[in-house]
């Protein structure tokens, strides 16, 4: 088996940054992130640089790397403190030149969230201003939150850690979870038509009575928050590709973090069935944990004037439409390395807004300790309500020649085609199946509805042309995207989503 990550390949990727690249390259580079995320989940105390070094030393073999890391002589990640810290609001740090308190400036937040530093946010105004999220504390009446928590703690006894195969390694997620939908019909569809990272989900449940009861409140609150966000942050107009339709939470993933050591690695949630600019409502119950977010940096320029070796490069270089500039709030190159920790107490609803999944990654790191909750003890329950859009039903989206529905992703690693969406095959992630070279640019109307798709049929010739020009001829290893399906580099801890 070819080594999956090698220094040579990484160099090659780096050299192709400005031209002649394709989403396949993007996927390839992200495969390294997937491995790092897996390793990070398995070895949360080892920093990323050290993980990468050991991974490279073991030719990209995650299992061998993990074995080597079992003898922990590597540097610890700084700042693994207790989940609950003391700062109450960023505004208390914001002092105007006259010395009086003022609302926090973006400049101040940028300074605090610089590379290597973590900005801790508690206050809803700070969170709204400095992250793509908004938060509502004490969201449910206390007794309803209590009922839901008790019900889900009981349910969580049957939750499982998602496991997935990475070459010959079986990796399991660092927390447990289950997936719920609104009706028996949806459940059947999920089991028989939806595919997550190349496989069908076997454990799909219908919403429990409390999940169902709370769903209406979440729907109402999230739609209100969306409108507020549009009014206050997007200049009164929804984002391009954001759906104008009401957000309807017809599915929910429930996560259980059983103690401070349980976590979820860096990832973006999978857009395949949610569509572009998805919104997610995330309800936290039980112990407080830190929800970390970090911006995906706009890739730095590495000009390579000689790299016009492929047809795709020539086409793409002339294709101004797809040299998309970063959004204004993402303009600073090199920005994005600082982390922001949003503290999620019991009974808080976090809304991940439309700018989140494409532009940011999120994680719940292991904590050194947690403050016990009177009902949940050391456990945290998290419910992410999601809107599975009809237009993104697997019957309506591209299916590759090998028969597996394609996944929807976005280019984030290359300036070329940055922000452009594409469909690609995940069959190569299924043990025993041949990797498939399918990829296809995704096109949407302004409201994020897919256009120009011909349903479940493949368009192999178009894809082959693109692939032949810009993909496989560079030895891209598509087996790389074996990680979590909801996110491009979530390290496999959500294999089923
Ligand atoms: O536990 C959380 O707050 C986040 C969970 C998450 O990111 C997910 O379910 O995708
Ligand atoms: Fe997530």
Structural overview:
The protein has helices at residues 7-15, 23-42, 48-57, 62-69, 106-112, 124-130, 142-155, 184-192, 209-233, 311-317, 356-359, 460-470; strands spanning 118-121, 133-136, 160-166, 169-181, 204-206, 251-258, 264-267, 280-286, 289-295, 339-344, 348-352, 360-364, 379-386, 407-410, 421-424, 439-441. By secondary structure, it is of the alpha+beta class. The protein has 2 domains: 7-78 and 394-480, no CATH class; 119-299 and 331-392, Alpha-ketoglutarate-dependent dioxygenase AlkB-like (Jelly Rolls, Sandwich), CATH 2.60.120.590. Strands 2, 3, 4, 5, 6, 8, 11 and 13 form an 8-stranded mixed beta sheet that branches. Strands 1-10-9-12-7 form a 5-stranded mixed beta sheet. Helix 8 links the parallel strand 4 and strand 5. Helix 2 crosses helix 3 and helix 3 (48-57) crosses helix 4. It is globular and about 50 Å long. Residues 1-30, 72-112, 307-326, 328-336 and 455-497 have low confidence and may be disordered. It binds 2-oxoglutaric acid and fe (ii) ion. The site of fe (ii) ion has 3 residues, from loops. One of its GO terms (biological process) is DNA alkylation repair. Keywords: Metal-binding, Zinc, Zinc-finger.
